[in-house]
Design a protein that fits this description.
Layout lengths: L2 H4 L2 E3 L2 E3 L3 H13 L2 H7 L9 H25 L8 H20 L9
Antiparallel strand pairs: 1-2
Length: about 110
């Protein structure tokens, strides 16, 4: 059993199924605090070494973590079966769109 599978999220006394709960938490955090993803979306290109290399390595690890959660969700039947890499790219693209909306002062419902 992987570390992700061992995690249990508790919300209002009920267990939230993994990895759906983790993905939802990541996305809701991004919506509540859009500045947290601003670096991930576009500001990272202004970094200089060694910060740039550190960021790139962390970004690769983050994307891999999301892809592993997506693949696990598909395996457990929480997410529809599809290509986990494409699904991960769709999730990350959606985060960029949501960030752009937040920057433009759009009201976004963080309860989904």
């Amino acid at each position: 059993m992987s570390a992700c599978e061992k995690l249990i999220l508790i919300r209002e006394g009920a267990a939230v199924p993994l990895p759906y709960g983790l993905l939802k938490k990541k996305l809701s955090t991004a919506l509540e605090y859009p500045y947290l993803i601003s670096l991930f979306v576009n500001e990272w290109t202004n970094l200089s070494e060694p910060s740039l290399s550190i960021f790139k390595n962390r970004r690769i690890a983050y994307v891999k973590q999301i892809q592993e959660l997506v693949a696990l969700g598909m395996l457990q039947g929480q997410l529809r079966s599809a290509d986990s890499k494409i699904t991960t790219c769709l999730i990350l693209s959606s985060m960029k769109w949501l960030y752009n909306l937040a920057v433009e002062d759009e009201k976004i419902n963080t309860i989904a």
